[in-house]
Design a protein that fits this description.
2 copies of one chain form a homodimer. With 243 residues, chain A is mostly helical. Chain A contains 9 helices and 3 strands, in the order H-E-H-H-E-E-H-H-H-H-H-H. Chain A is 60% helix and 4% strand. Chains A and B meet through helix 3, helix 4 and helix 7 of A and helix 3, helix 4 and helix 7 of B. The first copy, chain A, binds a DNA duplex (30 and 30 nucleotides) through helix 2 and helix 3.
DNA sequence: ATCTGATCTCTGGCATACCAAATGCCATAA
DNA sequence: TTATGGCATTTGGTATGCCAGAGATCAGAT
């Protein structure tokens, strides 16, 4: 049997505890392009422009100062995300979802969030649950959400993301984030509506209460019904948004 | 007012009803490579091999007979799916999920499936719901699932997919399919276990009954609890699968 | 025999060139 | 004026080639 090379305890020097942080991985152009394009697509308010939005590989590569290769890889990733659709020899089109698709996504969101609520009742710490109220501390009887729609809208999203995070389930977090990215596009035009905003805050507080009470079934139900309510709202009032 | 060009009835010739079928879109090498690699990864039984499985761009391009470009694009897509992770200058590694991640995924699956069940009680047709029983028509008191684990396992997956499909929600269908692809890898080693298989069939039938009764809450609960049961099972007995 | 480091090799990242199909423009014929 | 056919252009698809960093290898010094 050949001598096995000693692999244990070879520390010649104390491996100085200088905070070595694994150096910067320097993200590739591919990833930079992906992030840049994703952000650009998300902020372009797709549902506001009447005609189809197209992307051009060569134009993008010039704009970003890199060759087409990393751009194409980024496009391929975005296509997996469902943000764009490339048509051979025709172009790359930014996908517009129909109202039905959006409602569908919101329902999935409701499913995931209600599961998060369920998990939270059994694992989250009391203080973390209570901290969820802070997102709405700037609103109350003397400062109604419906009078500060834009601000409330941001608090609303932040609340939902914080809620899901409390589940400590990476999968639930990632999936809902993906959905939010798709839904966010016209969120300003729907969730922002005053009539719905008014009922939103009380529902959120009710969810928090159920979580604090560790009432699994009730928390799940409230979380689900709250988001399903949004789905129903969009289904009923979102018609005008989709030409 | 300028004369509007006549767009109606310009048929110069009868547009011969020769069966023109829109020709074949001939999927690109990029997509072919994506499908090929995905299938290869799914059937390689990742959790069976002890050492990390690596992929090599050049080797793959030779094997598939195409250049590296479409291969790289396919890899980028697979990375978005979470099947592989490319490490610069090191290689492309096929991702192995931890037990915790798998349990987490199954919980998300439970959330989505319970929402599907909920929707089904309000929209699906009676005959379609009843048809779900067909997946298990080959099993019964005289032919127990636990005695034909492999066969039952396939029926099991088919049942769940058919169930979700009945919700007529493309989003729920796609998301659960994605999850199933990740979970399927070691499914054979867990769901296949006899002790769990025995309780599976009755639970499935109970779900179908609730759906037929149009009992939204009950159907949702049964669907959720059934899949959460699998999650709990994996969490408790799946330890040995993850080295 | 072991440690050091120069070098060779392997691997993904990126740039570039060329291809082919889908369009659009435009000269030309009816 | 209008319909038609062909050519130039546009756009994504694919193939190649070179680069740089991370390891592995191996010779030389201690």
């Amino acid at each position: 049997m050949p001598a096995r090379k000693q692999t244990k305890a070879p520390p010649v020097m104390a491996e100085a505890d200088i905070a070595i942080v694994r150096i910067a991985p320097e993200t590739s152009f591919k990833n930079k392009a992906y992030e840049a394009l994703k952000e650009a697509i998300l902020k372009m308010d797709i549902y506001a422009t009447p005609e189809q939005v197209m992307l051009d590989e060569r134009a993008l590569s010039e704009r970003l100062g890199v060759s087409r290769t990393p751009i194409r890889e980024a496009i391929a990733m975005l296509e997996q995300d469902g943000f764009v659709k490339t048509v051979p020899r025709r172009g790359i089109v930014v996908v517009r979802r129909t109202k039905t698709e959006i409602v569908d996504m919101i329902r999935a969101w409701a499913a995931l969030e209600s599961m998060a609520a369920r998990l939270i009742t059994t694992t989250a710490r009391k203080k973390d649950i209570t901290a969820l109220r802070d997102f709405f501390k700037d609103f109350g009887k003397d400062r109604l959400p419906q009078d500060h729609v834009e601000e409330y809208s941001k608090a609303n999203i932040a609340f939902h993301q914080a809620l899901i995070s409390l589940s400590e389930s990476p999968v639930l977090v990632d999936m809902t984030n993906d959905i939010l990215l798709h839904v966010r596009g016209y969120r300003q035009l729907t969730i922002g509506r005053k009539d719905r905003t008014a009922t939103s805050l009380p529902e959120h507080l009710a969810i928090i209460e159920a979580l604090e009470a560790r009432d699994t079934e009730l928390a799940e139900k409230r979380a689900r019904d709250h988001t399903l309510g949004l789905a129903a709202y969009v289904e009923a009032h979102g018609q005008e948004l989709f030409s």
